[in-house]
Specification:
46 residues, mainly alpha
Length: 46
């Protein structure tokens, strides 16, 4: 996840047809939303 980059932009950069497709895949694989993941693993939020 890139700081300041909207999740929908990340989804399209990765080739997903829609942001919701990316969101479902991300949550299934990580157990958290992209925002939750960013907040947990970004140094600024530790």
């Amino acid at each position: 996840i890139v700081d300041g980059m909207p999740t929908d932009a990340i989804a399209y950069e990765l080739g997903y047809a829609s942001p919701s497709s990316f969101a479902r895949f991300f949550k299934k694989k990580t157990g958290m939303t992209a925002t939750e993941f960013f907040m947990r693993y970004n140094q600024d939020y530790l």
